[in-house]
Amino acid sequence: MALLSINERQMQDAILKQYMPEPPKDTSLKNTRNCLKWIDITLDELDKLSIIHVAGTKGKGSTCSYVESILRHHGYKTACFTSPHTVDYRERICINGQMVSKDVFSAAFWHVYEKLLLSKVQSFANLAFTLNSPHPW
After folding, report:
1. Burial of residue 72, with CB atoms counted within 10 A of its CB: 0-12 exposed, 13-18 middle, 19 or more buried
2. What molecular functions are annotated in GO for this chain (predicted)?
């Protein structure tokens, strides 16, 4: 059901984009803090995560794969969030080199989706933070 909701949302977004100009996005730090608060992640929890952010025009996926593999082989717990996916939305999120299971994805998705829907903020990037937080999935 979670994957179906994402696919339906993507289709709805594509249809809306044909008829409406894209609304301005709030990329402020205040908005990010609010999103984290809404999905029950504190700044202290976030500060405990070691995050590597890879940016640029080419090679991000390969770079992330190499870094994730090296860290994992040296005993670190890893999580990798990439975009886009090829077939299954869950391809975007790997924990310790494995695509997240349907059960774990669904639990995290609904946790984030319901809270952000109530707050009228819909950002699936927050799903990655949720999957890596100390919540018991």
Report:
1. middle
2. acid-amino acid ligase activity; ATP binding
Q: What is the DSSP string of 81-125?
A: E-S--SS-GGGGEEETTEEPPHHHHHHHHHHHHHHHHHHT---TT
Q: Do residues 130 and 108 make contact, with C-beta atoms less than 8 angstroms apart?
A: yes
The model's pLDDT over 26-73, given as tens digits with 9 standing for 90+, comes to 667 887 888 888 888 888 998 898 999 999 889 998 999 999 999 999
Q: Can the peptide bond before residue 84 be classed as cis, meaning omega within 30 degrees of 0?
A: yes
Q: For the whole model, what pTM was predicted?
A: 0.62
**Residue 38 and residue 123: Cα distance in Å, rounded?**
12
Question: Which residue reads 């310790």 in tokens?
Answer: 96
Q: For the CA atoms of the chain, what is the radius of gyration?
A: 16
Domain extents in the chain: 2-131
Geometric angle at alpha carbon 34, from 33 and 37, rounded to 5°: 90
